[in-house]
Amino acid sequence: MTRLLRERLRPYWRQIGVIVVLVLVQAIASLYLPTLNADIINDGVVTGDIDYIVSTGGVMLAVTLVFVLAAISSVYFGSRVSMGFGRDVRGALFRRVESFSQAEVNRFGAPSLITRTTNDTQQVQMVVLMILNVILLAPMMMIGGIIMALRLNASLSLVVFVAIPVLLLFIGLMVRSAMPLFKSMQVRIDRVNLVTREVLSGIRVIRAFDRTRHEEERFASANEDLTWTTLRVNRLFALMFPTVGIILNLSTVAIMWFGGRQIADGDMPIGDLTAFLTYIVQILFSVIMATILFVMVPRAAASAERIQAVLDTRPSIVDPAEPARDVPVRGRVEFRDVEFRYPHAEEAVLT
Q1: Closest CA to 133 of 316, 296, 281, 250
Q2: How far apart are CA 193 and CA 199, in angstroms?
Q3: Which long-range contacts (C-beta less than 8 Å, at least 24 apart) are formed by 240-245?
Q4: Rounded-to-integer distance, Cα 194 and Cα 109, Å
Q5: C-alpha closest to that of 130 among 75, 73, 66, 168
Q6: What is the pTM of this model?
Q7: pLDDT tens digit string along 280-323?
Q8: Is CATH 3.30.1950.10 the classification given to domain 2-311?
Q9: Considering only CA atoms, which of 190, 182, 183, 180 is closest in space to residue 108?
């Protein structure tokens, strides 16, 4: 998938650069808000300073506005880049298939080529959109949140360094288990498209020979295989989000417990605990955002592999670079030394 993204996203590097800047602004604004909230609690609410609360609240409002504008703009540019990427890939696939001879078409199969041009391209396109709008933001939020949490309270930050490795290990196991299933799912989609196409193209023959029941059974078999494969994938990922939620909630409980004890001992202001909880949620939420991408990556990687296989295939029949234009015509057609054999067959069928 990396090769496909590198080649097809190259024309959009300026827009991607703008998206990176907007996502960075979005991350900075999001990380600055908990600090302002802590200042309001520590220096405004506790001391009863209304003027400080109003002035700092105005700053929070301005930062929130910047955050919203950056988020909307990044989504807008990300959508344009991902849609353009999908358009380019579909166009490249169509042009490649147009140059195929019947041998290449038979090798992949018409239903498979249709699936690769539509469904597979859409899978990769959605991952591009997620990368530009989610995966760019997630590491910034994670790194920035860890830095801000360490600045507030280094001892409570140990909770983060326990929770994150557990999350990453769990996600890695899930992705490793899902990758073969997603490849199998795309093959079964090809099978459903093949049966459907054969039925539609041969509907008159099927009715003439009373093969309707047989074709219904063929489609039911292909459809059931796809259904069971999809259910296996969904059952696997049904465990992901509850597990991530449990880890997030346990981390919050641990922070509240140890942070409450520090507040009781006078070692930590109440506002700092509030900000620290927000940073922990932002850190773990960035992992959850990455988790959503990891749900989509295995299937998109399988789709990208299928797309690249078509793009890398060279036609067996190629027009000459310099065709002969002035060939004398004698008005005679000859048919000499011609034979026909099936692909990989040892002997010719016709000679």
Answers
A1: 296
A2: 10
A3: 240/170, 240/171, 240/174, 240/291, 240/295, 241/288, 241/291, 243/170, 244/167, 244/170, 244/284, 244/287, 244/288, 244/291
A4: 8
A5: 75
A6: 0.70
A7: 888 877 877 777 777 677 778 878 888 888 888 888 777 777 77
A8: no
A9: 190
